[in-house]
């Protein structure tokens, strides 16, 4: 090689090397490292698993431009502190359920579950097609949070009871773990409603500090071992016909994202809703079979007068929301009721009709 050609080639190579040296740190600096705080123990069957799925999906769909690291309840902040942590910017996002934030506003509770209210598919339908997302954004915007639904546990159970329930009178004075609007319904029935985590609920049932309690459903409940301390497992869980799981993102962090990464976060949440819900449904069914067959769990239906009393109490709860001093709470409530009545009327022909017909011929 002639000297002039060698020198030219060397300069080109040096320039290329220099470009790599400059570009690599710029790319690295473009990576956003997000902390996801959760209300759950790490990998708790159900919500803990779903939270990890959310972290992994945002990271994958962003091509690594957002790296999400999950912190279980208590690792960075307490489980009940994740909303405030994201609101204040201590963490970029959280995974929890709206039922935990009633102290912020009772209007928030309607986005998670409602006694005798929306099923999992209807809950998503209200937000996506019935005007619910705009109200969801408006309410959480007060706390500098951008909210998304990202899963659902499906129908929850009335829960674990140390003693059998024969009438609505038996509920009075009962120390009962529940959350959200179901807690207000229980209080109106004369129950002593208490909020606590799953581990604390187990200990309270074991010691008698609780008489009964509901957490989620067979998959999660069996993992927490409630069948070891209470054998009576009651349905239907009319307090929470479905319980939506949510992702809350710090609004400033979200608004600073380029448009494509905003779409990544949005799609990551939406794309998980159905897989999370159907995994719950499948594993609830499997876990219930195991608990009955291997652990002596007694599956019992709530007496009709109990369900009737719960319905009357739920109506009072909703009526109070309609009369709330907060104009936004009123608008959320009216929007929810309008959508419930719309799809409820249709479901009497559609899903309800199909389920009743299927039940009539099961076993063919």
How would you describe what is shown here?
This protein has 364 residues and is an alpha/beta fold. It has a domain at 32-154 and 242-281: D-Maltodextrin-Binding Protein, domain 2. It has helices at 3-29, 47-61, 82-88, 106-109, 120-129, 132-141, 180-188, 198-207, 218-224, 251-255, 259-295, 304-322, 327-347, 351-361; strands spanning 32-38, 66-71, 93-96, 145-152, 159-161, 175-177, 192-194, 212-213, 232-235, 244-250, 298-301. The strands form 2 sheets. Strands 7-6-8-5-9-11 form a 6-stranded mixed β-sheet, covered by helices on one side. The longest helix is centred in the last third of the chain and has 37 residues, at 259-295. Mean pLDDT is 92; it is low at 1-28.
The CATH class of the domain at 32-154 and 242-281 is Alpha Beta
Tell me the Rg in angstroms: 24 Å
* Tally of helical runs: 14
What is the oligomer described by this structure?
single chain
- Estimate the global geometry from the Cα principal axes: globular
For the termini, the CA-CA separation is 85 Å
How confident overall, as mean pLDDT?
92
What strand order characterises the main sheet?
Answer: 7-6-8-5-9-11
The fraction of residues in strands falls at: 5-15%
- Going by CATH, the architecture of the domain at 32-154 and 242-281 would be 3-Layer(aba) Sandwich
- The poorly predicted ranges are 1-28
Instruction: List how many beta strands DSSP finds.
Output: 11
Which sequence of SSEs, written as H and E, runs from N to C?
HEHEHEHHHEEEHEHEHEEHHEHHH
């Amino acid at each position: 090689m002639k000297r002039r050609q060698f020198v030219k080639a060397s300069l080109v190579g040096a320039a290329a090397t220099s470009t790599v040296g400059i570009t690599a740190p710029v790319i690295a600096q473009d990576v956003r490292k997000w902390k996801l705080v959760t209300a759950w123990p790490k990998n708790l069957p159900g919500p803990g698993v779903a939270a990890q799925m959310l972290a992994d999906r945002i990271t994958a769909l962003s091509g690594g431009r957002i790296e999400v690291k999950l912190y279980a309840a208590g690792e960075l902040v307490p489980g009940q502190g994740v909303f405030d942590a994201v609101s204040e910017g201590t963490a970029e996002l959280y995974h929890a359920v709206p039922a935990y934030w009633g102290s912020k506003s009772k209007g928030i509770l309607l986005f998670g579950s409602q006694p005798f209210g929306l099923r999992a598919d209807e809950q998503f339908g209200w937000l996506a097609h019935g005007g619910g997302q705009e109200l969801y954004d408006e309410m959480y915007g007060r706390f500098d949070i951008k909210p998304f639904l990202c899963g659902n546990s499906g129908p929850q159970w009335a829960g674990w009871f140390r003693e059998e329930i024969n009438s609505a009178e038996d509920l009075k004075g009962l120390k009962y773990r529940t959350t959200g609007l179901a807690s207000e319904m229980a209080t109106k029935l004369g129950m002593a409603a208490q909020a606590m985590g799953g581990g604390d609920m187990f200990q309270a049932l074991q010691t008698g500090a609780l008489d009964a309690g509901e957490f989620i459903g067979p998959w999660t409940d069996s993992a927490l071992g409630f069948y070891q301390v209470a054998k009576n497992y009651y349905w239907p869980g009319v307090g929470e016909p479905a319980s939506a799981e949510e992702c809350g993102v710090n609004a400033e962090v979200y608004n600073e994202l380029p448009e494509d990464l905003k779409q990544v976060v949005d799609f990551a949440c939406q794309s998980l809703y159905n897989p999370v819900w159907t995994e719950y449904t499948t594993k609830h069914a499997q876990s219930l079979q195991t608990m009955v067959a291997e652990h002596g769990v007694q599956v019992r239906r709530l007496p009709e007068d109990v369900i009737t009393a719960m319905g009357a109490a739920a109506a009072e709860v909703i009526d109070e929301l309609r009369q709330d001093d907060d104009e936004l709470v009123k608008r959320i409530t009216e929007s929810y009721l309008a959508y419930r009545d719309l799809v409820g009327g249709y479901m009497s022909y559609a899903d309800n009709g199909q389920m009743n017909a299927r039940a009539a011929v099961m076993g063919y």
